[in-house]
Amino acid sequence: MKKKLLGSTLEELKAICLEEGFPAFTAKQLCQWLYQKRAVSFSAMTNLSLKTRQLLEEKYEIGAVPYFKYALSKDGTRKYLFDFSGNFVEAVMIPDGDRKTLCVSSQAGCRMGCRFCMTGRQGFHGNLDAAQILSQFFLIDEAEELTNAVFMGMGEPFDNLDNVLRAVEVLTSDWGCAWSPKRITVSSIGVNKAVKDQEKSPLERFLDESRAHLAISLHNPFHAERLSLMPSEAAFPLEKTLKIIRRYDFTGQRRVSFEYIMFKGLTDTPRHADALVSLLKGLECRVNLIRFHDIGDTEYIPSDMKTVQVFEDRLNNAGITATLRASRGQDIEAACGMLSGKEKNNQITK
After folding, report:
1. Which of 71, 148, 196, 253 is the most exposed place for a label (fewest CB within 10 A)?
2. Total Cβ atoms within 10 A of residue 252
3. Do 128 and 266 have their domain in common?
């Protein structure tokens, strides 16, 4: 099997060039072709010698995978469908004035099993490698116009942290895309337990090894109630997540935010608002309120707008910055919690 080059760091490309006997400067040329010019074939790398390109073609592949269908929302949101070795994965481009934000996926399906999420309902089908994650950035129609990225698509990013961190490194490194980390937010339910032989949890590793923003899917401040919505609360309790977060500094350029879905009668009462204030007191953060989007076959009901406004005001009056996130792409099932990766979705049009 050929080795993929997309997602490789400059140092890794230098090692490949040394091993193959290429000139040392070839590694930087490869970085330029992969991450700045977004080449999808070795034949396009015209400043490399023909011999170098032929050897690369024989032993390596770029690894870029184009989308094969998309759906366009009436609000301009565009949902792209990718086929990664038989796993169908969706990414969403969200336009907002001068901003174009990509909601990127990190897994095919998800292990976390959140009751209100289409991706969680479909189960887990595999991690995406760095090349597959970066394909979502590089091969959509708006690739050159993207201003921001949120890892809030399909999957739990911290369950595939190595590949997510690698993609973020490519996006933010001088030899890569040279984005500011401030342009990237990574969302998680809060995977706060170390895995295998690692000393740190994925949450701690992300905070130590990246400068990108953090968003935590909170959704309910009470353990038992959160557990009923999010089975992962049993393994990764919110209380421990918050203890870890409080050890880090979010008073500078890096932000932590909390995603909070408004379910009628389940998460939207004054009791929930007051408990949320108590949980987050003293932490420099923002709460993003999200009206639930009906995914079908569920007992959950969206909160009405008056209740959402009262809840938002209660948080803000208590000193917790809260805003209602605008819903985008709901007509093409591209809104929060609605990504499924189902190829049979007849709204995908191209």
Report:
1. 196
2. 8
3. yes
Co-location of 165 and 304 in the same domain = yes
**What is the number of structural domains in the chain?**
2
160 and 37 within one domain: no
Domain boundaries, position 15: 3-61
DSSP per-residue codes, 10-32 = HHHHHHHHHHHT--TTHHHHHHI
Per-position DSSP letters for 211-225, written without gaps between them: -SEEEEE---SSHHH
How far apart CA 34 and CA 175 sit, in angstroms, is 10
Looking at the structure, tell me whether residues 24 and 91 fall in a common domain: no
Residue 252 near residue 198 (C-beta atoms within 8 A) = no
What is the pTM (predicted TM-score) of this model?
Answer: 0.94
In whole angstroms, what is the distance from residue 20 CA to residue 55 CA?
Answer: 9
pLDDT tens digit sequence for 175-214: 999 999 999 999 999 999 998 888 999 999 999 999 999 9
Active-site residue list: 90, 336
- Kindly list the distances between the CA atom of residue 149 and the CA atoms of 112, 284, 346, in Å, as whole numbers in the listed order: 22, 22, 26
Is the same domain home to 317 and 193? yes
pLDDT in tens, 206-219: 999 999 999 999 99
Q: Is 77 found in the same domain as 13?
A: no
Query: Looking at the domain assignment, is residue 338 inside a domain?
Result: no
Sheet of strand 99-103: strand arrangement? 69-72, 78-84, 87-96, 99-103, 148-151, 184-188, 213-217, 256-262, 286-291, 321-324
Q: Is there a domain that residue 163 lies in? A: yes
Residue 350 forms part of a structural domain: no
Cα-flanking dihedrals φ and ψ of residue 226, to 5°?
-65, -40
Residue 117 CB neighbour total at 10 angstroms: 23
The DSSP string of 26-64 is: HHHHHHIIIIIS--SSGGG-TTS-HHHHHHHHHHEE---
